[in-house]
Design brief:
With 205 residues, the chain is an alpha+beta fold. 20% of the residues lie in helices and 25% in strands. The chain has a domain of 121 residues: 3-layer Sandwich (Rieske Iron-sulfur Protein), CATH 2.102.10.10. The strands form two sheets. Strands 1, 2, 3, 4, 9, 10 and 11 form a seven-stranded antiparallel β-sheet that branches. A four-stranded antiparallel β-sheet has the order 5-6-7-8, with no helix packed on it. The termini are far apart. It binds FE2/S2 (inorganic) cluster.
Length: 205
């Protein structure tokens, strides 16, 4: 019959030998110290940001082009004053009075006298014949005075002071069958050219 075999260490203990020491635990290898972004990450960050800048620049320029196209499709509409307008009934005009109501559309409508002392209604342009400013009618002084360089014009439109070289211009004017005044700005009359004698430049009362 076979004899049970003893464990060698038990045998050694039993024989009075010192117990075997446990094997030393090897320390885990140290992890490499934390470093900055890898070369690949760094390049990605640099080129990524440049790509973003380029992309936004491209997008902004495309948006600008689009806006320009839209503006081209819908151009600014300049509101020009009307080239002709009605200036009320002839009977409403008093002698030697300047009607300032149509200054915004570029004309004064006036009842006055012509060189033959006839009673007429005429329309003067509000453009100074010096450099194009708009004079003001000064009722107390009975004259048009230009604020830019001081030219003065009589109620007839004739220049008498300042640098303006010639009278204000008249517009074409007529009376309708029912007594309404119509001013046509498309046609002008200059005194120095003898055009104030044209019956289209005044309404004879
Ligand atoms: Fe009227 Fe010069 S523009 S005086």
């Amino acid at each position: 019959m076979a004899e049970p075999q003893n464990n060698p260490s038990e045998t050694a203990v039993a024989a009075g030998a010192a117990p075997a020491k446990p094997a030393p635990v090897k320390p885990a290898p140290a992890k490499p110290a934390a470093q900055g972004p890898s070369r690949r990450g760094f390049l990605g960050a640099v080129f990524g940001s440049w790509f973003a800048v380029a992309w936004w620049t491209f997008a902004a320029s495309m948006a600008g082009m689009l806006l320009g196209t839209v503006r081209f499709l819908f151009p600014n509409v300049l509101s020009e004053p009307p080239s002709s307008f009605k200036a009320g009934d002839v009977s409403n005009y008093e002698p030697d009075k300047v009607d300032d109501r149509y200054k915004e559309v570029g004309a004064w409508v006036i009842r006055g006298k012509d060189e033959r002392n006839r009673d007429i209604i005429y329309a003067l342009s509000t453009t100074c014949t010096h450099l194009g400013c708009t004079p003001n009618w000064l009722e107390g002084e009975k004259k048009f005075k230009c604020p830019c360089h001081g030219s003065g014009f009589k109620i007839s439109g004739v220049n008498f002071e300042g640098p303006a070289p010639r009278p204000l211009e008249r517009y074409s004017i007529r009376k309708t069958d029912d007594g309404q005044i119509v001013v046509e700005k498309a046609r002008k009359f200059q005194k120095e050219l003898g055009q104030w004698d044209d019956p289209d430049s005044y309404i004879l009362l």
